[in-house]
Design a protein that fits this description.
Elements: E1 6-10, H1 11-24, E2 29-33, H2 35-39, H3 43-50, E3 55-58, H4 61-69, E4 76-78, H5 87-94, E5 97-100, H6 103-111, E6 118-124, H7 135-146, E7 151-158, H8 170-180, E8 187-190, H9 192-197, E9 216-219, E10 244-256, E11 261-262, E12 268-269, E13 274-279, E14 296-299, E15 302-307, E16 315-318, E17 330-336, E18 342-343, H10 345-351, H11 356-361, E19 369-372
Parallel strand pairs: 1-19, 2-3, 2-9, 3-4, 4-5, 5-6, 6-7, 7-8, 8-9
Antiparallel strand pairs: 1-10, 10-13, 10-17, 11-12, 13-16, 14-15, 14-17, 15-16, 17-18
Protein backbone atom coordinates (compact mmCIF):
# COMPACT_ATOMS: atom_id res chain seq x y z
CA UNK A 1 0.00 0.00 0.00
CA UNK A 2 1.17 3.59 -0.49
CA UNK A 3 2.54 5.66 2.38
CA UNK A 4 -0.50 6.90 4.33
CA UNK A 5 0.09 10.66 4.06
CA UNK A 6 -2.38 12.67 1.97
CA UNK A 7 -3.51 16.25 1.47
CA UNK A 8 -7.11 17.20 0.77
CA UNK A 9 -8.36 20.33 -1.00
CA UNK A 10 -11.90 21.22 0.05
CA UNK A 11 -13.75 22.98 -2.76
CA UNK A 12 -16.79 23.67 -0.59
CA UNK A 13 -14.57 25.51 1.90
CA UNK A 14 -13.08 27.59 -0.89
CA UNK A 15 -16.55 28.56 -2.11
CA UNK A 16 -17.62 29.39 1.44
CA UNK A 17 -14.61 31.65 1.97
CA UNK A 18 -15.22 33.47 -1.31
CA UNK A 19 -18.80 34.04 -0.15
CA UNK A 20 -17.48 35.46 3.13
CA UNK A 21 -15.39 37.99 1.22
CA UNK A 22 -18.44 39.01 -0.81
CA UNK A 23 -20.52 39.41 2.33
CA UNK A 24 -17.87 41.68 3.88
CA UNK A 25 -17.76 43.99 0.84
CA UNK A 26 -21.04 43.36 -1.03
CA UNK A 27 -20.68 46.25 -3.47
CA UNK A 28 -17.21 45.30 -4.70
CA UNK A 29 -16.09 42.91 -7.37
CA UNK A 30 -13.80 40.17 -6.16
CA UNK A 31 -10.42 38.92 -7.29
CA UNK A 32 -9.62 35.38 -6.15
CA UNK A 33 -5.84 35.46 -5.72
CA UNK A 34 -4.25 32.26 -7.03
CA UNK A 35 -0.55 33.18 -7.08
CA UNK A 36 1.95 30.59 -5.83
CA UNK A 37 -0.12 27.83 -7.43
CA UNK A 38 -3.21 28.91 -5.48
CA UNK A 39 -1.21 29.19 -2.24
CA UNK A 40 -0.05 25.60 -2.61
CA UNK A 41 -3.53 24.15 -3.20
CA UNK A 42 -3.06 23.83 -6.97
CA UNK A 43 -4.78 26.14 -9.45
CA UNK A 44 -6.55 23.30 -11.21
CA UNK A 45 -7.70 21.77 -7.93
CA UNK A 46 -8.89 25.07 -6.44
CA UNK A 47 -10.59 26.40 -9.56
CA UNK A 48 -14.07 24.95 -9.00
CA UNK A 49 -14.20 26.33 -5.47
CA UNK A 50 -13.02 29.80 -6.51
CA UNK A 51 -14.82 30.33 -9.79
CA UNK A 52 -17.58 32.26 -8.03
CA UNK A 53 -15.18 35.21 -7.97
CA UNK A 54 -15.33 37.94 -10.62
CA UNK A 55 -11.72 37.49 -11.67
CA UNK A 56 -8.46 35.78 -10.90
CA UNK A 57 -5.32 37.62 -9.76
CA UNK A 58 -2.00 35.85 -10.11
CA UNK A 59 1.70 36.32 -10.59
CA UNK A 60 2.95 35.22 -13.97
CA UNK A 61 2.04 34.24 -17.49
CA UNK A 62 2.26 30.51 -16.87
CA UNK A 63 -0.42 30.77 -14.17
CA UNK A 64 -2.54 32.91 -16.48
CA UNK A 65 -2.30 30.29 -19.22
CA UNK A 66 -3.49 27.63 -16.77
CA UNK A 67 -6.52 29.69 -15.79
CA UNK A 68 -7.43 30.28 -19.42
CA UNK A 69 -6.96 26.57 -20.18
CA UNK A 70 -9.55 25.78 -17.51
CA UNK A 71 -12.10 27.76 -19.50
CA UNK A 72 -12.10 31.04 -17.58
CA UNK A 73 -12.99 33.91 -19.91
CA UNK A 74 -13.37 36.68 -17.34
CA UNK A 75 -10.75 39.13 -16.04
CA UNK A 76 -7.27 37.85 -15.17
CA UNK A 77 -4.82 40.27 -13.50
CA UNK A 78 -1.04 39.98 -13.41
CA UNK A 79 -0.29 41.41 -9.97
CA UNK A 80 3.34 42.25 -10.75
CA UNK A 81 2.74 43.02 -14.38
CA UNK A 82 5.10 41.89 -17.12
CA UNK A 83 8.77 41.13 -16.61
CA UNK A 84 10.08 41.89 -20.11
CA UNK A 85 8.73 43.53 -23.30
CA UNK A 86 7.86 40.34 -25.15
CA UNK A 87 5.50 39.33 -22.33
CA UNK A 88 3.08 41.91 -23.72
CA UNK A 89 2.48 39.74 -26.78
CA UNK A 90 1.06 36.96 -24.61
CA UNK A 91 -0.84 39.51 -22.54
CA UNK A 92 -2.59 40.59 -25.73
CA UNK A 93 -3.22 37.02 -26.90
CA UNK A 94 -4.65 35.89 -23.53
CA UNK A 95 -6.54 39.16 -22.96
CA UNK A 96 -4.94 39.78 -19.58
CA UNK A 97 -5.08 42.82 -17.35
CA UNK A 98 -1.75 43.78 -15.84
CA UNK A 99 -0.25 45.99 -13.18
CA UNK A 100 2.15 48.77 -14.13
CA UNK A 101 4.48 49.65 -11.25
CA UNK A 102 7.63 51.13 -12.84
CA UNK A 103 8.71 53.44 -15.64
CA UNK A 104 10.26 50.56 -17.60
CA UNK A 105 6.87 48.87 -17.97
CA UNK A 106 5.43 52.11 -19.37
CA UNK A 107 8.27 52.28 -21.89
CA UNK A 108 7.68 48.67 -22.94
CA UNK A 109 4.01 49.44 -23.50
CA UNK A 110 4.88 52.50 -25.58
CA UNK A 111 6.95 50.30 -27.91
CA UNK A 112 4.42 47.45 -28.06
CA UNK A 113 2.46 46.92 -31.28
CA UNK A 114 -1.11 45.85 -30.58
CA UNK A 115 -4.47 46.34 -32.25
CA UNK A 116 -6.41 46.08 -28.97
CA UNK A 117 -5.69 48.56 -26.14
CA UNK A 118 -4.73 46.87 -22.88
CA UNK A 119 -6.38 47.18 -19.48
CA UNK A 120 -3.83 48.13 -16.83
CA UNK A 121 -3.77 48.93 -13.13
CA UNK A 122 -1.31 51.67 -12.19
CA UNK A 123 0.24 50.87 -8.82
CA UNK A 124 0.98 53.45 -6.16
CA UNK A 125 3.65 52.94 -3.53
CA UNK A 126 1.58 54.39 -0.68
CA UNK A 127 3.93 53.13 2.05
CA UNK A 128 4.67 49.46 1.45
CA UNK A 129 7.90 50.36 -0.41
CA UNK A 130 8.01 47.29 -2.60
CA UNK A 131 6.42 48.08 -5.96
CA UNK A 132 4.75 51.17 -7.37
CA UNK A 133 5.17 54.85 -8.13
CA UNK A 134 5.63 57.16 -5.18
CA UNK A 135 2.74 59.58 -4.60
CA UNK A 136 4.61 62.58 -5.99
CA UNK A 137 5.26 60.83 -9.33
CA UNK A 138 2.02 58.87 -9.59
CA UNK A 139 -0.02 61.41 -11.55
CA UNK A 140 2.72 61.96 -14.13
CA UNK A 141 2.92 58.17 -14.62
CA UNK A 142 -0.85 58.12 -15.10
CA UNK A 143 -0.61 60.91 -17.68
CA UNK A 144 2.04 59.00 -19.63
CA UNK A 145 -0.09 55.86 -19.65
CA UNK A 146 -3.20 57.75 -20.59
CA UNK A 147 -1.46 59.19 -23.64
CA UNK A 148 -0.55 55.76 -25.05
CA UNK A 149 -2.79 54.26 -27.76
CA UNK A 150 -1.71 50.82 -26.46
CA UNK A 151 -3.56 51.49 -23.20
CA UNK A 152 -7.32 51.44 -22.75
CA UNK A 153 -8.71 51.49 -19.21
CA UNK A 154 -6.43 52.50 -16.36
CA UNK A 155 -7.29 51.18 -12.93
CA UNK A 156 -5.70 52.46 -9.73
CA UNK A 157 -4.20 50.07 -7.22
CA UNK A 158 -2.14 50.02 -4.02
CA UNK A 159 -1.23 47.53 -1.31
CA UNK A 160 -1.42 47.91 2.48
CA UNK A 161 1.58 47.12 4.66
CA UNK A 162 -0.23 46.98 8.02
CA UNK A 163 -3.83 45.99 7.35
CA UNK A 164 -3.35 43.06 9.73
CA UNK A 165 -1.81 45.02 12.60
CA UNK A 166 -2.07 47.87 15.03
CA UNK A 167 -0.77 50.61 12.71
CA UNK A 168 -3.65 50.00 10.35
CA UNK A 169 -4.31 51.52 6.94
CA UNK A 170 -5.50 55.10 7.52
CA UNK A 171 -2.19 56.69 6.57
CA UNK A 172 -2.11 54.83 3.25
CA UNK A 173 -5.79 55.40 2.55
CA UNK A 174 -5.31 59.15 3.02
CA UNK A 175 -2.34 59.20 0.67
CA UNK A 176 -4.05 57.13 -2.02
CA UNK A 177 -7.29 59.11 -1.81
CA UNK A 178 -5.56 62.48 -1.99
CA UNK A 179 -3.43 61.64 -5.01
CA UNK A 180 -6.16 59.85 -7.00
CA UNK A 181 -9.08 62.08 -5.97
CA UNK A 182 -10.07 63.26 -9.45
CA UNK A 183 -8.56 60.48 -11.57
CA UNK A 184 -10.97 58.19 -13.43
CA UNK A 185 -10.73 54.42 -13.24
CA UNK A 186 -11.60 51.50 -11.00
CA UNK A 187 -9.84 51.26 -7.66
CA UNK A 188 -8.44 48.21 -5.90
CA UNK A 189 -6.92 48.61 -2.43
CA UNK A 190 -8.21 45.90 -0.09
CA UNK A 191 -6.38 42.64 0.56
CA UNK A 192 -7.70 39.88 2.84
CA UNK A 193 -6.85 41.69 6.07
CA UNK A 194 -8.44 44.92 4.85
CA UNK A 195 -11.55 43.08 3.66
CA UNK A 196 -12.07 41.54 7.08
CA UNK A 197 -10.77 44.22 9.45
CA UNK A 198 -11.51 47.55 7.81
CA UNK A 199 -15.00 47.32 6.35
CA UNK A 200 -16.81 47.37 9.67
CA UNK A 201 -16.90 43.58 10.08
CA UNK A 202 -15.98 41.55 13.13
CA UNK A 203 -16.59 44.45 15.52
CA UNK A 204 -13.65 46.45 14.13
CA UNK A 205 -13.87 50.03 12.82
CA UNK A 206 -14.80 50.41 9.15
CA UNK A 207 -11.98 52.61 7.85
CA UNK A 208 -12.89 51.60 4.28
CA UNK A 209 -16.65 51.77 4.69
CA UNK A 210 -17.86 54.24 2.09
CA UNK A 211 -14.36 54.73 0.68
CA UNK A 212 -14.38 55.14 -3.08
CA UNK A 213 -11.74 52.46 -3.56
CA UNK A 214 -13.73 49.28 -3.36
CA UNK A 215 -14.38 48.56 -7.03
CA UNK A 216 -12.21 45.44 -6.72
CA UNK A 217 -11.04 43.63 -3.58
CA UNK A 218 -8.35 40.97 -3.50
CA UNK A 219 -9.19 37.86 -1.49
CA UNK A 220 -5.91 36.03 -1.00
CA UNK A 221 -5.16 34.10 2.17
CA UNK A 222 -8.76 34.32 3.41
CA UNK A 223 -9.91 32.31 0.39
CA UNK A 224 -7.93 29.38 1.75
CA UNK A 225 -9.28 29.55 5.29
CA UNK A 226 -6.44 31.29 7.12
CA UNK A 227 -6.88 34.41 9.25
CA UNK A 228 -4.72 37.22 7.88
CA UNK A 229 -4.46 38.78 11.36
CA UNK A 230 -3.75 35.65 13.40
CA UNK A 231 -3.19 35.44 16.37
CA UNK A 232 -5.30 38.50 17.16
CA UNK A 233 -8.19 36.71 15.47
CA UNK A 234 -8.51 33.16 14.27
CA UNK A 235 -10.27 31.69 11.26
CA UNK A 236 -13.29 30.77 13.35
CA UNK A 237 -13.71 34.42 14.39
CA UNK A 238 -13.95 35.39 10.71
CA UNK A 239 -16.10 32.35 9.84
CA UNK A 240 -13.50 30.93 7.47
CA UNK A 241 -13.11 27.24 6.72
CA UNK A 242 -9.82 25.39 6.10
CA UNK A 243 -9.41 24.65 2.40
CA UNK A 244 -6.47 22.26 2.92
CA UNK A 245 -6.10 19.25 5.17
CA UNK A 246 -2.82 17.43 5.68
CA UNK A 247 -3.26 14.10 7.38
CA UNK A 248 -1.46 10.80 7.84
CA UNK A 249 -1.46 7.81 10.19
CA UNK A 250 0.59 6.42 13.04
CA UNK A 251 3.00 3.76 11.82
CA UNK A 252 4.51 2.84 15.21
CA UNK A 253 4.33 3.51 18.95
CA UNK A 254 7.04 3.63 21.62
CA UNK A 255 6.91 3.41 25.40
CA UNK A 256 9.22 5.88 27.12
CA UNK A 257 10.64 5.83 30.62
CA UNK A 258 11.83 8.91 32.53
CA UNK A 259 15.08 10.12 30.99
CA UNK A 260 14.43 8.62 27.55
CA UNK A 261 14.91 11.01 24.65
CA UNK A 262 13.19 11.34 21.29
CA UNK A 263 14.63 11.94 17.85
CA UNK A 264 17.73 13.58 16.43
CA UNK A 265 19.61 15.74 18.87
CA UNK A 266 17.66 14.29 21.81
CA UNK A 267 15.78 17.59 22.05
CA UNK A 268 12.92 16.06 24.06
CA UNK A 269 13.43 14.15 27.31
CA UNK A 270 10.61 12.26 29.00
CA UNK A 271 10.04 13.35 32.58
CA UNK A 272 7.68 10.48 33.34
CA UNK A 273 6.55 7.22 31.75
CA UNK A 274 4.72 8.06 28.53
CA UNK A 275 3.70 6.63 25.21
CA UNK A 276 4.42 8.29 21.89
CA UNK A 277 3.31 7.61 18.34
CA UNK A 278 5.35 7.91 15.15
CA UNK A 279 3.50 9.60 12.27
CA UNK A 280 4.38 9.26 8.60
CA UNK A 281 5.09 12.93 7.93
CA UNK A 282 8.27 14.98 7.94
CA UNK A 283 9.93 18.02 6.50
CA UNK A 284 10.27 16.33 3.08
CA UNK A 285 6.46 16.43 2.98
CA UNK A 286 6.38 20.14 3.73
CA UNK A 287 5.88 19.97 7.48
CA UNK A 288 8.08 22.65 9.11
CA UNK A 289 11.34 21.23 10.45
CA UNK A 290 11.58 24.16 12.86
CA UNK A 291 8.33 23.14 14.58
CA UNK A 292 9.53 22.21 18.06
CA UNK A 293 8.03 20.02 20.74
CA UNK A 294 4.54 21.19 21.65
CA UNK A 295 3.28 21.96 18.16
CA UNK A 296 -0.45 21.09 18.11
CA UNK A 297 -1.67 18.01 16.28
CA UNK A 298 -4.82 15.87 16.30
CA UNK A 299 -4.78 12.09 16.81
CA UNK A 300 -8.14 10.49 16.06
CA UNK A 301 -9.61 13.98 16.43
CA UNK A 302 -8.10 14.55 19.90
CA UNK A 303 -5.75 17.46 20.54
CA UNK A 304 -2.20 16.56 21.48
CA UNK A 305 1.32 17.77 20.65
CA UNK A 306 4.50 16.83 18.85
CA UNK A 307 7.59 15.74 20.78
CA UNK A 308 11.18 15.90 19.61
CA UNK A 309 12.66 17.13 16.37
CA UNK A 310 10.85 16.70 13.05
CA UNK A 311 12.85 14.43 10.75
CA UNK A 312 12.69 13.98 6.99
CA UNK A 313 9.92 11.39 6.89
CA UNK A 314 8.57 11.10 10.43
CA UNK A 315 7.57 13.01 13.52
CA UNK A 316 6.59 11.92 17.02
CA UNK A 317 3.40 12.80 18.88
CA UNK A 318 2.42 12.53 22.54
CA UNK A 319 -0.17 9.80 23.17
CA UNK A 320 -0.62 10.59 26.86
CA UNK A 321 -4.31 10.35 27.68
CA UNK A 322 -5.05 8.65 24.36
CA UNK A 323 -5.06 4.94 25.25
CA UNK A 324 -7.15 4.10 22.18
CA UNK A 325 -4.55 5.49 19.77
CA UNK A 326 -2.20 3.07 18.05
CA UNK A 327 -0.83 2.00 14.70
CA UNK A 328 -3.27 3.16 12.03
CA UNK A 329 -4.73 6.04 14.05
CA UNK A 330 -5.44 9.13 11.97
CA UNK A 331 -3.12 12.09 12.53
CA UNK A 332 -4.26 15.53 11.39
CA UNK A 333 -1.35 17.88 10.89
CA UNK A 334 -3.71 20.75 9.96
CA UNK A 335 -7.20 21.16 8.59
CA UNK A 336 -10.26 18.95 9.07
CA UNK A 337 -9.99 16.01 11.43
CA UNK A 338 -12.40 13.15 12.13
CA UNK A 339 -15.97 14.22 12.77
CA UNK A 340 -16.20 17.98 13.01
CA UNK A 341 -12.77 18.56 14.51
CA UNK A 342 -10.51 21.24 13.05
CA UNK A 343 -6.88 22.13 13.62
CA UNK A 344 -6.18 25.56 12.18
CA UNK A 345 -3.08 25.83 10.03
CA UNK A 346 -2.48 29.16 11.77
CA UNK A 347 -2.04 27.42 15.14
CA UNK A 348 0.54 25.07 13.68
CA UNK A 349 2.34 27.93 11.94
CA UNK A 350 2.47 30.05 15.08
CA UNK A 351 4.00 27.19 17.07
CA UNK A 352 6.60 26.86 14.31
CA UNK A 353 7.37 30.58 14.30
CA UNK A 354 5.95 31.20 10.84
CA UNK A 355 2.62 31.93 9.09
CA UNK A 356 -0.01 29.75 7.49
CA UNK A 357 0.89 31.06 4.02
CA UNK A 358 4.30 29.36 4.21
CA UNK A 359 2.92 25.99 5.28
CA UNK A 360 0.37 25.94 2.46
CA UNK A 361 2.94 26.88 -0.14
CA UNK A 362 5.50 24.38 1.17
CA UNK A 363 3.40 21.25 0.62
CA UNK A 364 5.79 18.85 -1.11
CA UNK A 365 5.21 17.34 -4.53
CA UNK A 366 5.54 13.83 -3.12
CA UNK A 367 2.36 14.24 -1.06
CA UNK A 368 -0.69 12.90 -2.92
CA UNK A 369 -3.49 15.47 -3.14
CA UNK A 370 -7.18 14.67 -3.47
CA UNK A 371 -10.00 17.13 -4.16
CA UNK A 372 -13.11 16.73 -2.01
CA UNK A 373 -16.41 18.65 -1.89
Amino acid sequence: MPRPIEALVHTAALAHNVARARAAVPDARLWAVVKANAYGHGIERAYEGLRGADGFALLDLAEAERIRALGWRGPVLLLEGVFEPRDLELVSRLDLWHTVHCIEQIEWLAAHKTSAPQHVFLKMNSGMNRLGFRPESYRSAWARLNALPQVGEIGLITHFSDADGARGIEHQVRTFAAVTRDLPGERSVANSAAILRHHGTGGLPGVLRGFQGNDWVRAGIMSYGSAADHPEHDAEHWNLRPAMTLHTRLIATQQLEPGDTVGYGSSFTAERPMRIGIAACGYADGYPRHAGSGTPVLVDGEHTRTVGRVSMDMLAVDLSGLPQAGVGSEVTLWGHGPGDTILSIDEVARAAGTIGYELMCALALRVPVRVVD
